[in-house]
Amino acid sequence: MLGIPTHLAPRVNAWSTVRAFHAAAIGSLVAAALLLLLYRIDAPDDHVLAAVLAVVPMLVMIGVHTHVGTWRSAAAFLVVGGICSWWFATVVQRELSEVPWVSSYLLSLVVVPLVLIGGSGSGTVRVVLWSVSGFVVGRVVTSIAAVQSGGPDHPLVLAWVTLGFVIALVVAVSRSTARSERVQPELLRAAREEHVTAYRAGIEAEAAAILHDTVLNHLNAIALAPAGPMDEHLARTMESDVAMLTGRAWLAGGTTAPDGTEPADAASRAVAAFDRMLDEQRATGLQIAVTGDPSSISRLDPLAVTAVVRAVGQCLANVVKHAGTDSAEVSVFDDGVACTVMVVDDGRGFDEQATGADRMGLRNSVRERIGRIGGDVQVWSSPGSGTSVMMSVPYGAVRDAAPVTHIGGDDVERAS
Length: 416
What we know:
Radius of gyration: 39 Å
Order of helices and strands: HHHHHHHHHEHEEHEE
Number of domains: 2
């Protein structure tokens, strides 16, 4: 019941139950007609075809009531069904008086639809009243037919069993619906709280990654800088990052130029953000060769563009800090399903298994960041053979992606 809104659950349950009752009623009438036809074949002197014809109007009225589904159509079925049941019972009492158990069974089969058809409302009391009314109508007309034909008044055991089953089923469904109405709000509230918690965890993880990408990287740059005045580019970058951290642009996932100017269309903004990130890394002295089709990034969702640009920037920052080389290659290609970016260097490389679990650069700023937008990261590296980081993000993945809140212990990092 969790997937059905609370206010619709009673109506859905009632609709399903009524349709099942209609199918059972049709099956009961068809069974009665087939039994009479088989009996006619076995005893051709008995005139039971009139009873078979009595079933036809009832089948027609079931179809009408199924299509219309109002109390008027239900009442019309009870009237037509009562007349047809009397007709049916009169023929059966006259022609099959010698086999009373067969007569009782056939009469029950024609009364059962009167019990099953009629519950047009979703209320328990209403359905039960219709079923009892149908049973009473069937019992009265079969008794009249018995009196008129001078035969015994059969007990209609199957009709009694059907009435008891209908009442028990309707009461059970009603109680189940009431229980679901009490429990479902709590389940929905728990699901909503879980979603909010996951979303908050994703925001906190992104905040930690941005803090690492900016503050920690700047502190590292200051520590490595020679004595004297601060490099002008580093100072401008720090000023821009401070403005970004104290504002809310990072929360929205924006990639705004320091001077505030941005291209009008989203595709140009994505390419401009990617180029701007490359220029910032080149300003640190890193030689970057770009291959493939960088414009493929523009096909990503804006949030995915921001994540990819930041993740590639962190990979390049890792090259500067850890690889021991002044060159790297960035390859961008599109396979029609996903945008893939590779950052490759021929530096000293590293062994992931030997890297401390407290290293946050590759884990928070690359793996988890790409994971939060539904992407995947693969790293190939070993001491002395350089490092290759491949980030693949399916187009449109952000809409279906859930925040990544935990990475296994094997995902160790090399950068801090």
